[in-house]
Amino acid sequence: MTISARTSSSMTSVPPILFDAAAQRLRRTRAQRLGPATFLLDRVMEDMTERLSAVLREFSRVADIGIPGHALADVKTLHKDVIHRDLLGPSGESLEIASGSLDLVVSALALQFANDLPGVMAQVRRALKPDGLFLAAMLGGDTLTELRQSFAAAEAEIEGGISPRVAPFADLRDLGALLQRAGFALPVADVDRIVVRYDNAFALMQDLRRMAATNVLIQRRKSFSRRATLLRMAQIYTERFADADGRIRATFDVVWLSGWVPHESQQKPLKPGSATARLEDAVKGRTDKN
Fold first, then answer.
1. Which of 30, 272, 275, 276 gives a 20 to 30 Å CA spacing to 15?
2. Which domain holds residue 181?
3. What residues pair up with 107 in beta bridges, in sequence order?
4. What is the distance of C-alpha 91 from the center of its chain?
């Protein structure tokens, strides 16, 4: 089970296809049937609204890149002209947005599914006007590290090998570098670590289904997991990652990315060792332009 991101593909070469778009659409349908688990999204949207409110300027034309209905509703409370692009739509990861047509692009918990994340960022950069803002939240870092370790240990013990159940997530440094590589100025990347507690590993897995966040890797095992492996995974999870009350911990690292399209009005980079601004101010974006 995974939500993962790719950061190593070239912007000019064809990236490998890591994620099964058809499977992901089926996961979405199942999540709606089960009743979506939105606690992570709710937190991200609250934070995104706060971050945008701290930027003292108007954004006339906005794009929301992600799962339909996720970021769109909250963004519309601040901005009227909003378009949506779904990475799993008919056009796939081709955003089909005119160059220099947007003032703001946002994305909430969707980019970790992109097969060509550098390519998506490059498209966002081209779609934004000078001094336009890109603000996104995606899962990365140590997300689901406990589940990953527990499955690996159980499969190695029961089945004598490890299958690609949980792909590695992009880390903060790599994602920050992608912002620079795509040509964004004043790039900032920071992490909001959220630790959620569950009664057991199966309760966590049920929430992942309701988040449409189960394994959609192309190379995933297509057969059902062995009962013995699942039971051993849950046992290992409890042994290694339970608190004193017996409940287990699950880590979700929300990586926030922000960057501006270069413009002559922006502050220029400081010489090494001469920085005086606080990271907190940079994360909130430029607040000096009306």
1. 30
2. 21-284
3. 136
4. 20
Q: Is position 180 within any domain?
A: yes
Number of domains present in the structure of the chain:
1
In a domain, 77, yes or no: yes
Whether 228 is in a domain gets the answer yes
Cα(173)–Cα(176) distance, integer angstroms = 5
The token pair that represents 1 in the structure block: 């089970």
pLDDT in tens, 268-288: 655 555 555 554 555 454 544
Question: Is residue 74 classed as helix, strand or coil in its secondary structure?
Answer: helix
- Distance between CA atoms of residues 255 and 90, nearest Å: 27
Q: Are 107 and 138 in contact (CB under 8 A)?
A: yes
Q: Is residue 140 part of a domain?
A: yes
Residues 67-84: tens digit of each pLDDT: 655 555 556 555 567 888
SS3 145: helix
Q: Which position has the token pair 């589940």? A: 147
Residues constituting the chain: 290
| Token pair of 277 as six digits | 């601004």
- Which CATH number goes with the domain that contains 60? 3.40.50.150
